[in-house]
Predict the structure.
Amino acid sequence: MARPRQEMIAETRAKLIAAGRNAFGTIGYAEASMDDFTGEAGLTRGALYHHFGDKKGLLQAVIMEIDAEMTERLNKVSASAPTRWQGFVDECAAYIEMALEPEIQRIMFRDGPAVLGDISQWQNTPGCIAALSRSIDCLKADGEMIDIDTETAARLINGASSHMALWIANAEKPEAVSKVAVTGFRAMLEGLRKQLTP
């Protein structure tokens, strides 16, 4: 029996994304060729052009997949914390620390900005801002965060965490930079925390 067309399309896309992710993660965007993706996936260049337009389009799809996985991991970090505030801080710090992981470092924080431009303008950024805004509204309702405009706080935190991750990913000594970046970031978040009066 013939397989449904949608299933075949999804499988082709998944194969190309997996091949692109492997190539981008190991040899980098600049060195990866169309043949690396299509050969590994057992597909033609036509399939790549049809689904993603070009190499840049494939990179965007790979980044969306990695971003979704990062979000899932970060949600687990915040869910396992003893308080909502601690979960929020731990989640933000964990995002920054992910810049030490080779695949994320290379694809998300080196090649991604080099090819796709300013990370704050990526198509997944509005979703990140919205998620941060929801968390901030909850923290404000709990009395944990100062009375600050929600979107302003979300953009401040998003921009700072992205900048810290980019700093780590492009540093000569990423491990050392990660330690000071996370410490500084946590201190910044503490500045947004409402201080309880004795």
About this structure: Residues 62-191 form a domain with the Tetracycline Repressor; domain 2 fold (CATH 1.10.357.10). The two ends are 73 Å apart (CA to CA).
